[in-house]
């Protein structure tokens, strides 16, 4: 009897987090691939993806480049809900050197990326990351 392959949700969440972090370090516009169409903040506030993209563009625009980006994923968790939906997170620590007009500043700290399972795909719905603020 052949077993039916199952989708590896944990690997999907972790791979999405890695793509987001890698894109962050490169200040890449491809960072948008991992983001949900809306973000859910504490208190139930909902923000559209275009607002988050504008915020990212503003953050990236202040720096000449990020150098030496490193991260460690410490924990990941998810819960599948009814109707093919789910919630999850990836957390760890990240750091990089922010170069602004030949001046260097180390940005580091814990991160947590929150995910929601939507239409069979895990997307980021909230960002806590060193250097990012809403």
Give the SSE map:
Blueprint: H1 9-25, E1 38-40, E2 46-48, H2 49-61, E3 65-80, E4 86-100, E5 103-118, E6 121-128
Antiparallel strand pairs: 1-2, 3-4, 4-5, 5-6
Q: If you had to describe this structure to a student in words, what would you say it looks like?
A:
- A 4-stranded antiparallel beta sheet has the order 3-4-5-6, covered by helices on one side.
- With 134 residues, it is α+β, with helices and mostly antiparallel strands.
- It has one domain (9-128): Nuclear Transport Factor 2, Chain: A, CATH 3.10.450.50.
- The chain contains 2 helices and 6 strands, in the order αββαββββ.
- The protein has helices spanning 9-25, 49-61; strands at 38-40, 46-48, 65-80, 86-100, 103-118, 121-128.
- The chain is 22% helix and 46% strand.
What are the key terms here?
disordered N terminus; globular; 4-stranded antiparallel β-sheet; Nuclear Transport Factor 2, Chain: A; alpha+beta; 134 residues; 2 helices; DUF4440 domain-containing protein; single chain
Task: Determine the CATH topology.
Answer: Nuclear Transport Factor 2, Chain: A
**Structural class, please?**
alpha+beta
Number of helices: 2
In this structure, how is the largest beta sheet organized? 4 strands, antiparallel
**CATH top level assignment:** Alpha Beta
Mean pLDDT: 92
The percentage of residues in β strands lies in over 45%
Total number of domains: 1
The sequence of SSEs as H and E is HEEHEEEE
CATH architecture: Roll
Helix content: 10-25%
**Which descriptor suits the 3D outline?**
globular
Distance between the termini: 52 Å
Low-confidence stretches: 1-5
């Amino acid at each position: 009897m052949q077993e039916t392959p199952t989708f590896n949700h944990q690997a999907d969440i972790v791979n999405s987090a890695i793509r987001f972090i890698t894109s962050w370090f490169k200040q890449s516009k491809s960072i948008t691939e991992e983001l949900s169409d809306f973000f859910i903040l504490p208190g139930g506030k909902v923000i559209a993806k275009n607002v988050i993209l504008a915020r990212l563009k503003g953050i990236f625009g202040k720096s000449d480049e990020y150098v030496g980006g490193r991260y460690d994923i410490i924990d990941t968790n998810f819960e599948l809900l009814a109707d093919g939906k789910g919630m999850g997170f990836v957390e760890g620590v990240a750091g990089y050197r922010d170069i602004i007009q030949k001046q260097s500043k180390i940005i580091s700290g814990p991160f947590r990326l929150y995910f929601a399972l939507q239409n069979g795909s895990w997307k980021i719905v909230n960002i806590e990351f060193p250097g990012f603020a809403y």
